[in-house]
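During the no-cost extension, the postdoctoral fellow (Dr. R.K.) reprocessed legacy sequence entries with the updated structure-token encoder. One reprocessed record is reproduced below for audit purposes.
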Amino acid sequence: MLTHPTFDRLAAMGLHGMAKAFAELAERQDADTLTHGEWLALLLEREASYRHDRRLAARLRYAHLRHMAAPEDVDWRAVRGLDRTLFAALLTGAWIDAADTVILTGPTGVGKSWLGCALGYQACRDNRSTLYARVPKLFADLALAHVDGRYPRLMRALGGVKLLILDDWGLAPLGPQQRQDLMEILEERYGRGATLITSQVPVDHWHDVIGDPTYADAILDRLVHNAHRIALTGESLRRTKRQRAAA
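Re-encoded structure tokens follow.
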């Protein structure tokens, strides 16, 4: 370990990326050939990279994404009707800043959750707060939160992030409390945060999933109006991979 006043001062100031870079540069044989400007540029670059990596790690821990899905790993060979231009536009995050909605629908196994998490991963990269939740578990957590007093805190968390990912929406019809909870979440986020929803159920059947006509109209008005839609098709990618492996 390098012992040097500059190294110690950088570490004491919390500039850990610069401290590590300083130690590495000091051990390089060509260190004396670098100008002061080059030293400073390298130290600053390493500190910026270090802070970005720490920030990304923190965002990802908080997001609890189901898949660590990097956008560059999207399988474009799969035949599932994924619009590459639209997906690339969504990766810029402009829709998140505009507090819009993205709806990913399609049969099981076509990669809805993975693609949703890829958009969430990119949001974390861009330093946008993100939170992932499977809808069935979310409703169970909300039901418990009503009882143990965590409901306000949980609602603040759901309402406060820039991007909320609701995965596996519509697997079962909503009950009265679930309708009310969903309405509260959307009302809290409307115009303030973006929402991404994945579902096996086509959008034109969501009214039936929600049940109560009054709630359904209000919820769908907030979710579907001006939403960016991706309707995937095709066979399950998991089944296709198993068949390839067995071949």
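Residues 242-247 have pLDDT under 50 and may be disordered. The longest helix spans residues 36-63. The remaining legacy entries will be reprocessed before the final report is submitted.
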